[in-house]
Amino acid sequence: MLPLERDFDAEPEAVRQVRHFLEGAAERVARLDDIVIVATELASNVVRHARTDFSVRLTTGADLIRLEVSDGSSIVPAVEDLADRKFGLRIVEAAAHRWGIESRPTGKTVWVEFLAHPSDP
Predict the structure, then answer these.
(1) pLDDT score at 110
(2) pTM for this model (two decimals)
(3) Residue 8 near residue 17, CB atoms below 8 Å
(4) DSSP assignment letter at 118
(5) How far apart are the C-alpha atoms of 117 and 36, rounded to whole Å?
(6) Spatial distance between the Cα atoms of 67 and 119, rounded to a whole number of angstroms
(7) What is the CA radius of gyration of the chain?
(8) DSSP designation for 31
(9) In a 3-state reduction of DSSP, which class is residue 1?
(10) Mean pLDDT of 104-119
(11) How far apart are CA 101 and CA 109, in angstroms?
(12) Residues 6+ apart with CB under 8 A from 12
């Protein structure tokens, strides 16, 4: 599948728009529920904290799915206190195979990778 990508405005309605975009465009992607939950959380963080327009990109491979949310803010989310949070980035931490934050000249990208076929515990 080709990468799916769309730009969104920094407004509360964008969170719902991200969810609908992914549910409609990626309906056959493995782990879609996890991807939508994480994308919704990241979009909400952008709207609440970064307050910039943003883009969502989803790339799928046979074994790995990568979600990227890029915004125009250079402020990096605080991740050192994940254990004290009930929501937010803990949702990302729980659902992801791995994730991280990359600074860019015009802001940052929060990326999340999901195993397409996670092994059963």
Answers:
(1) 95
(2) 0.89
(3) yes
(4) P
(5) 17
(6) 20
(7) 14
(8) T
(9) coil
(10) 92
(11) 6
(12) 47
